[in-house]
Design a protein that fits this description.
With 316 residues, the chain is α+β, with helices and mostly antiparallel strands. It contains eight helices and nine strands. Helices cover 33% and strands 16% of the residues. It comes from Seminavis robusta.
Length: 316
Amino acid sequence: MVSMQRTGSSTPSSTQLAGYLPVGILLLLLCALVPYVLEDHYYHRDSTLHHIDAAMIGKKKVMDKQPISDVQKKETPEEPKTEGEADESESIQCPYKSIDDLTEEEHHPVKGKRHTVTPPQGGSLHLVCCQTTKGPVNALVHEKWAPLGAKHFLDMVKSDYFSSTVPLMRCVKGFICQFGLNGDPKLNKMWRHGFPDDPNWLPEGPTNRKNEDGVFRFAHGYLAYAGGGKNSRGNQFIVALKPNQKLAGGSPWEVPWGELVGEHSFDTFSKVYTGYGEKGPPQGKLSNQGVTEELKQQFPLLDYVTGCRIVDERVE
């Protein structure tokens, strides 16, 4: 039998094991460190994402709190207004834009060639601009002349009452022009109810239609309500087309609360159509039905107030 001689052993010696030990320890340390490295990586990744998300959320909150109109202004450029889209107040323009534009006589009226007595002074003044189919009109409203009447008229102006087409329905040459009934019957119903009279600062009675100098009681351009008895003032007005002594101003419900100012205002009313006179639109029908197509066809030359606004005010 041939015997085989072994040239090496399959079991490592102690010397060899001692050489492998550092490598093994190093591998064990690396394996132990891997989870921590990965955890740190994901922590930083999550932290970064968290800050990004927080920034986005913060931005969203700011956007949510920001008014929609402001956002739209930044995102959408403002388009210019086209014809017909302009502010309605821009179409109501008068030569007098401030109380400072008034003459001294208009600002502080006193007894003289125009006024039969000196009107009440001071208080609140409101300069109103109205547009009519014949041109612009300025009126100065005096609170002290008739506190309740002045306030009622100004409340109508502030409500845009006169922007709904108000016909100058009863204009009598050399006397007065009556207006106030609205083209919208709903507004007539809302504003026509009577309210208490103001004290009359004009001399009353048939013997006081003019003073000792011959100055008529109700001056050209005076504005008052078209009342028909005690506490009957509502939504109808009169303006004197000339100084007159007939009717106007002789009763508490006809006390003036303001007057026309500026030559342009008197010029406008001189152009208002007076051909229908006392035979203008029936007041009852106009009040209940408003301005209908039938009325326009029946009274094609009728003039209208198309808007009023307050342009200045002052307390003296």
